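Attaching the record inline, Q. Sequence:
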Amino acid sequence: MLSKRNADAILVLCIGAIICGTAIFLLFPVIVTVFMAFDGREFMGPFPPPSLSIKWFERLFSNSYLWSGFQTSLLLAIATTALATTIGTSAAVAISKMSPRARDVTTTMFLSPLVMPGVIVGFALLMFFSVLDVVPSFFRLIAGHLIIALPYTIRMTLNGLNGISETLGEAALSLGANARQAFFTVTLPLARSSIWAGSIFAFAFSMDDVAISIFLCDYNTYTLPVALISLMRSHLDLTIAAAAVALMGLTFALLVVLDRVIGLERAIGQGVYKA
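Structure, as predicted:
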């Protein structure tokens, strides 16, 4: 029979193997995409590529169709982030003041888009706006992206607000500040990191959305992910891999900024100001 020490060693090896296998399974598609984006061939061939080149990135940045989609996605993500941050922060402040039961019900209602398939949300918005038939495509896209971005700004802001002790606001009130001054000088600065975190997540998910955008775009206003799907159907080449790597780089840069400026654990965690 195995001794306890040997059994523990085997268990550790099995857990390590599972972790390594899972990491490889998750990272392998990303690695393949990165290598194919630098493929020097003129066609999609077997992996790994025999030579490397940056020509697919040159074609990406010279493609007016994709560049127009990127500009729309960037403007859309900025507008969505600004609206989602403003509305989400206001909603989170109101929710934090509710009773526990009302808070749970209201939070669940606002977070429900996270469990709703994007295809259903996009189709429902398409039917809704088809009745109005006067709303420009860009504003339809803002409405759709706002639905998927709001849950992140509300959830992250709530995490920050839940971590702020009520005694801090009471101390400001006891020193002569009114409720508005206490909020803007004490509560809001302490929740700032969570608000920024929600904003960055809202921006990233808006840039990456396909399921809702594909229902709300038209021939003149379309996002980069929708343009990539259209390009895959009409002319499949490795420009798509280059665009995917560019989007991954943008998302990674946002996470680095979040980690350097705020700190991921501090931004995502809660209870940091309870003590």
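The chain has a mean pLDDT of 79. The domain at 58-268 is CATH 1.10.3720.10 (MetI-like fold).

More tomorrow.
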